[in-house]
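Ticket #4471: structure export looks truncated?
Reporter: QA, pipeline team
Priority: medium

Steps to reproduce: submit the single chain below to the structure queue and open the exported record.
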Amino acid sequence: MNWFQKIFNIKTGTDYQKTDQTITDGIGIKGANVWLMICSALLASIGLDTNSTAVIIGAMLISPLMSPILGVGYSIGIHDKEIFIHAIRNLAYATFFSLLTAFVYFLITPLGQPTSEILARTQPTLLDIGVAFFGGVAGIVSLSRKETTIALPGVAIATALMPPICVAGFGLATGRWEIFGGAFYLFFINSAFIATSTYLIVRLLKFPIKDYVEKGKQKRVARYAIVVLILVSVPSLWFLYTVYQNNRTQQVIKTEIINDFRLRGNEILKWETEDRDSVIVIKTFFSGSPVSEDDRLYYEKKLKKLGLSGYDILFYQMNISKLEMDKMGSEMTRNIMKNIELQNSNFRDSLQQVYRNIDEGMLYEEVKSFYPNIFALGIGPLEMKSAAKTDSVWAAYLQWDTLAEKVNKEEAVKNIREYLKKRLKTDTVWLQQFDQQKIKR
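Actual output as written to the record:
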């Protein structure tokens, strides 16, 4: 045995009888294991719902989901049909109990919003396959040792079997089928590749085979299994590409937009992107001077130059510093940001509601009764989308006819603006006037 073989040899120290007994005894989902399964699913659901990583880790540590998956790979490796059927049946039971528990929890929880912990488990990538595969290798290697190892808790945390099932339960309870599909796919590929790595290590360690299988048939089955694993992995390649593209886009936004905005003397408190139907919004929370309309237009043009025409940017001004925000709890910070967004949204909605109740023709006739020389009048809410609390105002456009030279326009504009303020019940009206002849040219 050369130096390389001595270093990487794992056959020494393998306890075949102990491994067989440990795996076969742990497959059954009944009695205490059912209670552990339900408690683990509840803990994982609570952790996902409250965005608590610590609670989710605790749920993964007590989950018995790994045992039937190891049983599937082990049974294939030793050609034991009875253990295979037993493991598949109990894996189905475990999946059902976990999914049902999470489904019921998310039906009754007062929260039930897609947190970052939930969304993180909806787009499995090739990297997740790597985690599952090498986690499965570590799991079966540690189980096969004569001496007790401390690797299994780490394997349980790394492979993270319970959280995806609970996220799938969230998707079912809320009718978010894209979340259900992504999370259940993550659970499926985790299970498939943990079982695959278990099978490979069992064959490498030369565990005693129970039933003899004709070599030609064994090769055909192996080929089918490889094809299935490749097909299962294809969607994860697409997800990985999507994640790469998103990360690249986020880096461009940070470098070209956020850092540029910071260099203009503003303090960035937080920024994030949000998918809103046909546009992705870059929400930027900052402290400093209000953002002008020119600044907003500048960043809109810059996004288009960067190839991000499907993006829009919103600025939310906050009267606190980054240091003050860091001292606040994360929940308080989220609530403050939600309130600022809500205030801006309500302000825009209120303008739109008033506008819907205005008869522009009647408003034109009212103003024309005071100043007959008016040729046209247009009015509507103008959305600035740039500075907090002042991002929507009333804008009016006044056009004088050719006889308006006899009118004191300065005084008339002032009076019309005041009239519109009272009529629209607002403090600010932007009024721009034009001459009919100038418009024609």
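Status: closed, not a bug. The export was complete when the record was re-opened. Leaving a note from the reviewer for reference: DSSP finds 18 helices and six strands in the chain.
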